[in-house]
What does this fold into?
Amino acid sequence: MVNDKKQVRVWCDGCYDIMHFGHANQLRQAKAMGDYLIVGVHTDEEVRRNKGPPVLTEQERYKMVRSVKWVDEVVEGSPYTTELETMEKYGAEFCVHGDDITLSADGTDTYQIVKDAGKYKECKRTQGVSTTDLVGRMLLMTRANNLSQSSDTGLPSQDEFVSPYTKACNLLQTNSKITQFSSPSNEPKPGDKIVYTAGAFDLLHPGLVDFLEAAKKEGSYLIVGLYEDDVVNEYKGSQYPVQILQERVLSVLANRHVNEVLIGAPYPLTEEVLDHFKIDVVVQGMVHEGDHDSDHYAVARQRGIFKEIDSGNCLKTEDLVMRIIRNRKLFMDRNRQKQIKELNNINRMAKKEKSTDCDSALIPLL
It folds into this structure.
């Protein structure tokens, strides 16, 4: 029987700067609303004009969005304000965004056009993470990679009113969230060549994405071991990891090249891991992050299954941190301006709602 069901094409767009699990979760929810997910990504110029300087370049951001397993197509250089013409060009029936608000440079809702046209759907915003918060965490680091004496991140202090769209809160990890991010039928198939690698995978960035792609090419099933926070802290320094283990797990699970994640992987690698997962090859990149005192892949070398691979990308997590630090004032201003726009909009909406309530309370004279 021929399946003539129409394919539902869904549109999302955004900056997707410092791609995190909140972005991935929005894309996961959007894909679940249809069959084919198209994601528009704004240029550096558009981001600068409406939001402030991006940390990643547009080419890096395009790469990051393409690496998310729920994304079917990326549209480079999409307009900052979502346009019906753009959606129609790619055959998208509706647009999906989180239940926060995105504002243009003049403070208007960038999704108002599609909302008015009835082509807008909302998904739940992921609590516990935002690009603004991650930038704030990195602003606390100095050029010497120690905690700064100043705690100024461009965000209001705890006793000030903070925008609910931006404020950080503790990530409450649940089994269901990990299940949502995991791929169905995740067991390796007979004949699969199983590849293993391990690390911090902190602030998943283009360098790590290129490495994961290269690692997957060494076999057909990729397992990524993620070290506990105290292990990363030991070999990378007191200010790392920037993201806690639970955050890093979700980011890596969202990557299209990864089949399985070993949470709290042993450091160094053990015989038990190699035997339990029937690992055929253990890979390490040419770019090493942190100071490893010993060969943590010694057992793989002894078995003759260790391989060092070159992804062609030397970007490291420390490089992202340095981009923030070198432009500290720019990013502090960016955080503050984002807060001001969001708070002004919240106040405006509150006044509008109050005015509506007052109008509805009036009793007409008979």
In short: The longest strand covers residues 9-14. Residues 263 and 355 are 51 Å apart (CA to CA). DSSP finds 14 helices and ten strands in the chain.
